[in-house]
Each structure stands twice: as C-alpha cells, then as structure tokens.
Specification:
It is built from eleven helices and 16 strands.
Length: 451
C-alpha cells in the first residue's frame, strides 16, 4: 500500500490553505502526514512560538548578480534586472519565481563588514563575534535553540541540513552553551565533492540488526546507570549534557515525529516544485521540521552540478556561469518554501534569513570571476516579523561602497533576534565564567524592516 495514500495520514489543511497552495503554483496537496492539528492550530494561534530557517550560502554570494544589480555599469556583468511584485524593486533575471514573492522580502543592500577570510567571516556572521581568545561563542542556531527549547520536544531544537563546515567547524557549534544545543547534522557535505538530495538522511536512527526492544531497553538502562553514577561523583555541565544528549536521541528514535525526516512521505509533485537537489529537498525538510515545532533549521546551498569551481558561491572564476546555476536552484527551493509555508499559515511565524559570509567584488577579475568583498554586500530577511516589499540601504553606482544605512553584523543579528521575539542583549554565562550577550550591546536592530 502506498503510504502517501493512507487516509490516517492525510493533511488537515483548511479549504483556504488548499486554495492558497493551488493559486501559488505549488502542488495542490502534500500528503506528508505531518500537516495535522499541530500545524492548523499553530497557524491560527497568535501566541505561536516563532521559528527560523537560515538559508546559508556557502562561499559568499555575489550581491551584484542576485539582489543589487548595477545594469549599464562596467561592474554590472551580463545579467538583466527584472521587475518584482513590488513596484520599483528589481532583482536578477535568474530569480523570477522569487521576484513574485518580493512582498515578503526585505532586501538589505548595505551590509558592511570587515572580514574577507572565509573561516573568520563565517564565524563572525554565524555567531556575531570574531574568533578570539578562549571564549567559545555559540552559533545563532544554538542560541535560538536555547531560547525556544522544550524539555518534552521529540525532535532536536536545532537541525543543520547539508552543512559544509570545512572553513570553520566551530562556527556551526554550540560553543559555551554546551553540547545539548549542538545541531543535529543531516547529510553533511564534503569540500569539493558532489552531493544530492538523496543523501539527506539521519544516520543510525534504527536499532542494530538483531537487537530486540527488550535487549535495547536493558542496554540503555545499563548506560543510564553508569552515567548517573559518574554524574554523582563528577557533577558538571559536560557529563550532564552527554547524558541528556543520549536521552533525547532515544526519545527521537522512538517517537512518531522522527518520520518528519522521511521525504518519501511527500507528494512527488511537491518535491519536484522544490527541486530534486540537496538544497531544494533541504528546504522541504526544513518546512516539515518547522511544522513539527523545531525552532531553528538551516539549509546550506553550496556547489551544484556544472560549476567550474569546487566551492559554491566562491566564484573567483567563471562567476556568471556558476551564479546562474546556483540561482536556478535557489529560486525554486526558496520560492516554493515561502509558498508552502504561506499556504499552511506558517510564514507569518517563520523568519527566513538568507546570507553568506560576505559578498563579491564589484570589479570583474581576469578569470571572469568576482573575489571576496565584505565592504558592501547584501542579505535578505523574509517572513515572520519582517516588513517585506522593500530594499533597505543603498550602494554606489559602481557597487564599491555603502552610501546609505550601513549595517554591521551585530546590527543584522540584532534585527534577526528582534524579529524572532528574542532580546538580543540577553546574557548567557560563558565557559570562562563571564556573561556574554547574544549580540553586542552597541548593536541596533533595523527598525525599518521589522513588522
């Protein structure tokens, strides 16, 4: 029997939500089995806790060829700027479906940062701090997971889909918050190797072959006893976190919620709309997890087939060929994600963050590429807590400098936290016994883009 056709798993969307899905051009229905009372009630409940989906563009995307084009200038390149659903707002011709979603996009064209090294910039954008000294700063996902955690959650509070952590593994970790706030990694990518959506699997979800439930229970009880004894003699955060990690892993393995990771439960047409690639299927998985109450999910877009260089958006050569391919994957995955969330009543409570570690040089190099450029570049915020239909800030005609409303990393992350309903100045105790704010005290959220 086809599990997609099982009546007990049919989605319980309202008639209005079905119509929204159809009108948006997304598949008329998704028999995922997880569109149940939780999603319907949560969508209608103004008290619903917000979630965040980070779309991480590994390598640093070119603002000049995505959201801040300079047509007619020597730095502009061959792409055309197209109109969006928002009058006067134009983006790349290779993002046509996303252009129709502009009413929910706040494009921040005035990012101005200081770090042009992949590893250090990745750490900076993902934690809000520079890597320095003994302090192990936590990633944004870990911070959000801590703020929104539920003790009874069957799924992890932070899931990282298809990450590529080559340049700075610490930028993806929980830092001083401890391992209980580390992400569950789904389908990690390796530098310079191909990767597809079929690799989005959670490892070791099933019990070892030949091990029955009773034997498994006995083994777990023995382990818990050892850990309890060790904790009684050596109390501390690390052993406690280790014990909690095992307990949560077992809870997840034995819960019905773990089926959220099974994309085969989705209608094939909806999977096609997202794109049959790691990023598109990752966006679909992100929707399934947010729908199930996971507060923070990130999806990485790195290399796609046909590129002339090995690392995603790091387009030092043949920039325009690569960005076109990357944009096509981005366009289908991101736009369908927004349509899908909106149809289910979840977009207003889900913040979508689009960013990389920096931008690319406006000047085109001899290899027809663009190099690292933190001086003036672009990020995007969309969905919950955001006033869309606008571009904030402005760069010069040649793209070389910010001319209006420069935005720093702390300012951007402060805006992100505020949109989520998190106090960006809240303090957590660090591993050196010193309280550290989520975002630097001097940061100012961008009020103009907050709803």
């Amino acid at each position: 029997m086809d599990r997609r056709a099982n009546d007990s798993e049919r989605p319980r969307l309202s008639r209005r939500q079905w119509l929204r899905l159809s009108a948006a051009g997304v598949v008329a229905h998704s028999l995922s089995g997880w569109i149940e009372t939780l999603a319907d009630d949560a969508a209608a409940d103004p008290r619903r806790r917000r979630s965040c989906i980070l779309l991480w563009m590994a390598g640093g995307p070119s603002q000049m060829d995505t959201f801040d084009l300079k047509p007619g200038h020597a730095n502009g390149g061959p792409y055309k700027a197209i109109e969006t659903a928002t009058p006067g707002l134009r983006i790349s011709e290779h993002l046509p479906r996303l252009a129709r979603e502009s009413g929910d996009l706040a494009i921040i064209r005035s990012m101005s940062t200081k770090e042009g090294d992949h590893g250090r910039a990745t750490f900076n954008l993902r934690t809000g701090y520079m890597p320095q000294g003994p302090i192990q700063y936590p990633a944004l996902g870990s911070l959000v997971a801590k703020e929104f955690e539920r003790d009874d959650a069957e799924l992890p509070n932070f899931v990282s889909i298809a990450p590529i952590r080559f340049f700075n593994p610490a930028a993806f970790g929980p830092g001083f918050l401890g391992p209980q706030y580390a992400p569950l990694i789904v389908g990690e990518q390796n530098f310079g190797r191909g990767f597809d959506g079929n690799s989005l699997k959670v490892e070791d979800l099933n019990s070892p072959q030949g091990i029955g439930r009773d034997q498994e229970d006995d083994r777990l009880a023995l382990l818990d006893g050892f850990e309890g004894d060790f904790l009684s003699r050596h109390p501390g955060i690390s052993p406690l976190s280790h014990r909690m990690a095992y307990q949560r892993a077992v809870r997840m393995m034995r819960s019905a919620a773990v089926k959220a990771f099974d994309l085969d439960r989705e209608d094939p047409r909806l999977r096609d709309a997202y794109g049959r690639n790691a990023f598109g299927q990752g966006c679909l998985l992100a929707r399934r997890l947010v729908e199930r109450g996971v507060p923070f999910v990130e999806v990485t877009l790195a290399s796609v087939p046909g590129q002339q260089q090995v690392f995603g958006w790091d387009t030092h050569l043949q920039n325009f060929d690569s960005v076109k391919l990357l944009s096509q994957v981005l366009d289908s995955g991101w736009s369908t994600l927004m349509q899908d969330l909106r149809a289910r009543g979840l977009l207003d409570s889900t913040l979508i963050v689009w960013m990389g570690e920096f931008g690319r040089t406006p000047k085109i190099n001899p290899q027809v590429g663009r190099d690292h450029f933190p001086n003036a570049w672009t990020t995007v915020l969309a969905g919950g807590g955001i006033r869309g239909g606008q571009a904030y800030g402005r760069t010069s005609d040649d793209g070389m400098k910010v001319e209006e409303h420069a935005v720093s990393v702390p300012d951007f992350l402060s805006t992100t936290c505020t949109a989520l309903g998190i106090d960006p100045h809240k303090q957590n105790m660090s591993d050196v016994g010193r309280p550290i704010r989520i975002v630097d005290l001097k940061a100012q959220p961008i009020k103009e883009v907050l709803a």
